[in-house]
Amino acid sequence: MLPWIHQHILTILIASPLLGILILALIPRRHEEASSEVAMVSSGLTLFLSLVMFSTFRPLGRFAFSESFSWLPQFGSSYRVAVDGLSAILILVVSFVILLTVLINWKSMRVGGREAFASLLAFELGLIGFFSAADILLMYVFMEISIVFLGVSALLVSGASLTLRRSEQPFPPPLTPTLSPSPSPLPLGERVGVRGRGGGEGGRARGLPKFVGFMSLASLLFLVVIVFLMLAAGSSNLVEVEKITLAKNAQVWMLALLLVGVFCRMGLFPFHSWVGEFSGQPRSVNLLLMGLVFVGGAYILYRLLPPFIVAATLLQPVLTWVAVSSIVISALISLAQKNLGSLFIYIFMAQFGFVLLGIVSVNPQGFAGSGMQMVSISASIAAISVIFALFRRRGVDLGAEDFKGLFARTPVFGLCFLVIMLALASLPGLGNFPGLFMIWMGLFKGSWVLALVSLIGVVFMATALINVAGMALYKGELSEERQRRLPLSEVVLIVPFVLLILAIGIFPDIVLRYIKQSTEAAWALFSQQI
Amino acid sequence: MGPIFSTDIALAVWKNLPFFIPVLTGLIIYVIDTCWREDEDKDVLIYLAVAGLIGSVLLFWRLWMAGGPAYFINLPVSRFSLALLILVLVLAILFVLTAHDYYQMRGMNVARLVVYFLFATFGIVSALATVNVMVIFVGLVITSMALTFMLRSYGGDIGEIARKFWVYSLATDLIFCFGAVFLFGSIGTFDVGAGPGLISAVNEVYTGNYFRIGLAVMAVALFAKMAVVPLNWWVSDIVYLRSLPLIGIILFFYRAGVVLVALKLFAPLAAMWGEFFEVPIVIVAAVTMSWANLAAVRAYDMKSLLACSSIAHVGYILALFPTLMIADGSGAVSVVILVTAFSVAHLGALATLQTLSSDTADHTDFVSLIGLGRNHPWVALTLSLFLLALAGVPPLLGFISRFMAVRELALSGNYFILLIVAVNCALAVYYYTRPIAQMYLFKSEGVSELEADYPLIVVIALAAIMIIYLGILPASFIHWIGLSVAGM
What we know:
The complex is a heterodimer.
Chain A: H1 2-7, H2 9-26, H3 35-55, E1 64-72, E2 77-83, H4 85-104, H5 113-132, H6 136-165, H7 201-233, H8 238-243, H9 248-266, H10 273-278, H11 284-304, H12 309-314, H13 316-335, H14 340-360, H15 364-393, H16 406-409, H17 411-424, H18 432-446, H19 448-473, H20 488-506, H21 509-529
Antiparallel strand pairs in A: 1-2
Helix pairs in contact in A: 2-3, 2-5, 3-4, 3-5, 4-5, 4-11, 4-15, 4-21, 5-6, 6-7, 6-11, 7-9, 9-11, 11-14, 11-15, 13-14, 13-19, 14-15, 14-18, 14-19, 15-17, 15-18, 15-20, 15-21, 17-19, 17-20, 18-19
Chain B: H1 7-35, H2 43-66, E1 70-72, E2 75-77, H3 79-105, H4 110-129, H5 133-154, H6 159-187, H7 196-203, H8 205-226, H9 233-239, H10 244-266, H11 270-297, H12 302-320, H13 330-354, H14 366-369, H15 372-375, H16 377-391, H17 397-412, H18 415-441, H19 454-472, H20 475-486
Antiparallel strand pairs in B: 1-2
């Protein structure tokens, strides 16, 4: 039994959220409160299986846990799953983040949570499938599943919160249900939409179309690139696709399409406008989910880059400029944010700009640094989301003012918050530093000027984060409500993240050895092509 | 004096039986309906129609499996035709079942609808069976007449719409006939499957030009029936009908049939028209999908949205027509997959909307969808499933069809239309997600009870299974279509 499980661990991992979804579908509406428990057990099981997979990860060659079944022989596509170091660690991160999402929505989603939890689990299924796919068409299929259910999850969770907040803000205007056959004269955007910038009507109207538009544009661009690669390789097997040699012209065009798709998905400049609209007042769930989508965007670029490596080398100066601009602009925008949710979104966008920078620097240090960044930013995002969730639970809003005096109220929690802020500011010895350092090392080889320019972004980010940290350290007069302390049980939730951030910062090798297993293999391929 | 009923006649009857089963079933139902009293429950007649159609499917399947020659009124029927006939008849079974509950709820005589529907199905079967353009013309006329009578039999205030539909259909049929005559004048036969002789005749400049004019005229007629922009104005009339089954039959079943007829007619001749008509077809396809998608963005009613979406799908299908020139027949396979996804997903969405209908009105506007996710989760889930399939989201059939379309366009080097298709698909995702957001984002206080009868539930379930199964494991279906195309 155990060898069988070991042999099919990836398929079992992909299927485990499905089990939760099926059970959720069978729960009668009157017992809906049980959906939290089902979701927790299902995501807990997935995390357990991920840990089993991760702890037994011993790659023979490039990939481990390879499985393959015929799926679409007409197009040379199979259900082919396998993991290398980077994907194994990312699967672990996903399982952990989804369990966390379930836990932080434990109370708020007890009513109306069946669909929300089911979509969260479907999102998890999509992401685990995406990271384990070793077939580019299969990878695309799982990626799309994850994107669809990201939207659904975010909408359902936001929708639930909006229902609660209706007494405070009249939303949406024409909610009176009617079975009149006449069409509503009001524009749909006023009735349907995710919360926009500042929560205003206009923001809501723009939110949904922009999100759907950017995501579907990215999907179609990825599809075109994947079809092109399949036609060139005669198969969608990732290993075969990586080995093909394309004409330079074709490489340039296809890499351009791929990059536009990645930029749309990661919300990088100049395709960043949907991010603000989608999460003007982001809930912790939105932050978590968007973080995973950003990681997914970077991952697909990492996986599909080998056939375009000549074009990437050719276009490297342009791409590096674009990545650096994205970092600086996102960091600059973060300085202007009054709302902590928006501020962190832009900080994460800037951090993901570094991930892109590492990949397009086309050298082993840059690659490894990008992988490290993906993991460490995910940890930071998860930590920030927990903090927001704990505060939201007390009705504390995410305005910078609301965090005033945090240190004075709860010193342990304040300290944890400070560590996370400093980690995001890339302070040496903390989680984000090793990745960033490696990316810089890679970048210095290509252009030291750009490396210095990218430092401006870090300075902006640090300024924004230090402002927030300053608020937390504020010791002025506080209202009675703000002096209420967080109980120890909740403070404990955040401590593991801080330890993880410290561990990655001080002993980066615990993550780096897995990532290097992946990036060194990728680099060997690139070297052949170049 | 020989025997009245010779073995040859028996054999001929047996060979033609599968083609005539729909019309024979229709006649039997007509006779029974005439003999029965008006107030008698005529539900059983629908099941009789379904039994007839299933019988026909089984016989066609047997013929397909045998791989041997099949004949329709002495004209050879290819394996590709047999596959298309099976597909159309399966769709016919699903479509006829949707009418049961709806007509019963309104206290109307469903038998008449079934009779006319079976005649229309027979028309499409005839048009699909052969590559003789006169037989196709007769099949199209039978379909037009049957659908017009079907519209008139519904009664109420749709007489005007029925008249307009009749005039339009007849006009397009006559245009098709005109093209057929041109074709006859150029090659001396109505049979476009005449083999190498045909190709050498068409290669002559004089003959070739008339041949292509004939094809172009026939294409215009078929495009008008498919509601290609700007010949799509009749669709808005149909959308106004207060009968969801009729809308489904005309907009999704009939048009899917016409698309398959066009495929059947033009695919074997692609080498003869391809280089001449590629650019006009691409332009028409681009205009059709773009116009329809932009119109769908402004739609506030599911009927309008699905109608616009169906026109956009016709645009995607037309965009694939130049790929029919690819020698391995993969273009034709893609078209068949796209037509299957188009008709099943639209049928499923419409059938799901039908569950919301009351005995006096259809509730298809977006406002009626508010809160469905909470009040009627299964209805919301299935409707979302069909809409996501239409949007091309994996792992549903819509994705496979979209993937194959993109693959064929890339393979044939039609990058301009590939770009247009990509932009349109991105736009389409937006309008398909609007009703989903409406269903799941908001709550509705008043919860109405829904009652759907078993045939409708069976249709929705079958359509959902097809969409999911063929989306996840499409290999056998694609292989089957591929084998059939090889026998074209």
